Hints:
The chain is of the alpha+beta class. The chain has helices at 2-11, 30-35, 51-54, 87-108, 128-134, 181-188, 197-205, 215-229, 231-236, 286-294; strands at residues 12-14, 39-42, 69-72, 77-79, 117-124, 158-165, 173-178, 239-244, 249-253, 259-263, 267-274. The strands form 2 sheets. The protein has an 8-stranded mixed sheet with strand order 1-2-9-6-11-5-3-4. Strands 8-7-10 form a 3-stranded antiparallel sheet. α2 links the parallel β1 and β2. α6 (181-188) packs across α10 (286-294). The longest helix has 22 residues, at 87-108. 34% of the residues are buried. Fe (ii) ion is lined by residues 141, 145, 147, 254, 259.
Amino acid sequence: MAEKNQLDTQSIITFPNDDWRAKTGAISSAVEELEQGKILFFPHLGYPLNTQQQSLLDPALVDPKRKNISYDVGRHQIKGVANSEKEPQVRKLLEDYYQACSALIDTVLPEYQSVLRRPVNSLRLHPVSEWRNKSSWRKDDSRLHVDAFPSRPNYGERILRIFTNINPHGEDRVWRIGEPFPQLAERYLPKLAGFSPFKSWLQHKLHITKTPRSHYDHLMLQMHDKMKSDDNYQKNGQQITQRFPPGSSWICFSDQTPHAAMSGQFMLEQTFLLSVKDMHNPDASPLRTLQRITNKRLL
Ligand SMILES: [Fe+2]
């Protein structure tokens, strides 16, 4: 129990901000805390919707073939809206949410202001329980995991995510949050299969991956799978439960902080990519951590 309480105080940093654009509420150590794998939690930072936007909170608005509605900010491309009449409204909501997130970054993480890349965001309308019931264990995000994607190798690039609970019925988004990344890596690295450059080349040729998987991507994906398939770790691994109420937001590096979505419905999510070299402390990245432990270059 003491161990779990310790994880609690170590893994969540709370901020008083209640305005996306106000230049107050910044904590100078935010970037360091975030890069250590902590979650920056803003219990008073909601994203209020007007009446017209509230009407978009309907799972039937998501294309049945997709999990969420997603918006590529740079390309102005929206995917997954089942009703084309509603598309302009959804697009406006996601564009505005991106602008709000950018303003928040300027205040809380000013060092990242000019180096975050490739903004994409999503409107998540399904209850967590719905896709959990339909998924295989590998896709089940209610199992503790770090984000790594089978078809999209990212060569160590960081995945920064901002989340906002927009549930209109008072329902919390509930996460489990796991141990610090270095501890996680020490636990799983001995159990991971070796990297095969030939297999990586072949998977690319067969269009299983968009670019060849690097040694780093191989390890991250293996770790993602091993964590999710390890029932003992899921049950007994070091973890805390954190509730994110409606009207709150939180930020984390989802490639570093073990997380599991347990319940909730209706969320906005903004993703940015960040090069390791553009971090305040690149040594805290999963890439450098894995390089240190394995004593290999991995890229
Ligand atoms: Fe995830």
